[in-house]
């Protein structure tokens, strides 16, 4: 992702109230399975729902990290690297910074050093200090590959010191909590590869959850960490938010609708649809209906086919989100970098639909076909952005 991300569009408060409740009650009647003309919306995959890490479902707000205890297991990193991540998080806790800062810091260290405390073959004395490898980039040292201006050799190779210096610079970045992770990290690190941090956000969030009791699922509200509250435009520490504040009606691949590869979220027309996470727009267009017509500038009907006006976005971790049945042409274009919470369109009823709502999908492994679709309900809950009305 780029540090030239567009500013988030202004958000308008939408009154859902009784109307949303009424829409929720009627959501079972809404149809949006996609038309035969859609190039990927009509296939039925045989995949089961994505397995959710049970430990991450514990959403604690006061879990102090134990840097000396047993470390969780991650296939990507060993025990020593996870202990370094624990130190980074513990320093953030001691500084009373919100979990979003911990996710940014862990992701940054993942990119800079692979969570290893690195010496440097060109820096005298660094190899005599306990380390987990030897680098060679300029005079960079430690978890964050900090150069001489950040401190002495011994200081930069002290994981706690290095983390504290990173946080001290991060909190001086204007609006850092709302920035995409890669932009916030780059403003601190000034890296030659500014887009590289984004790919680590998903795994960094899972590491924070595992080490700090689900902290990546929290939202900072009035100075307090609140669990599972990113449902009305707030951004969770994981970097995710609910796309609209409505309630889920028709569910994922039910017995009645086995080809329904997402969920339907009730909302009035013109409700602003937000990007669920920072990412790049893959598709933003009108989906053909069953008769190959591009007729999205009108309300649809059951069995019309097609997703109407829709958007596909690619996010860190290879996840894709899909937003269907928009009222008009999306506000974003393919290739555009979009921030979490940025408005990308409005709720409508175009395509295969019998009333205004958002059809929302999540796909894994960068697979836009139905084979990559998973149930958005547990996925969003695990990221602290539960879909309202969903169990």
UniProtKB/TrEMBL annotation:
CDD domains: M23_peptidase. GO terms for molecular function: metalloendopeptidase activity. Keywords: Hydrolase. Residues 259-367 form the M23ase beta-sheet core domain. Coiled coil: none annotated. SUPFAM superfamilies: Duplicated hybrid motif (SSF51261). It comes from the Bacteria. InterPro entries: Cell_wall_metabolism_enzyme (IPR050570), Dup_hybrid_motif (IPR011055), M23ase_b-sheet_dom (IPR016047). This is Murein DD-endopeptidase MepM/ murein hydrolase activator NlpD. The lineage of its organism: Bacteria, Bacillati, Actinomycetota, Actinomycetes, Micromonosporales.
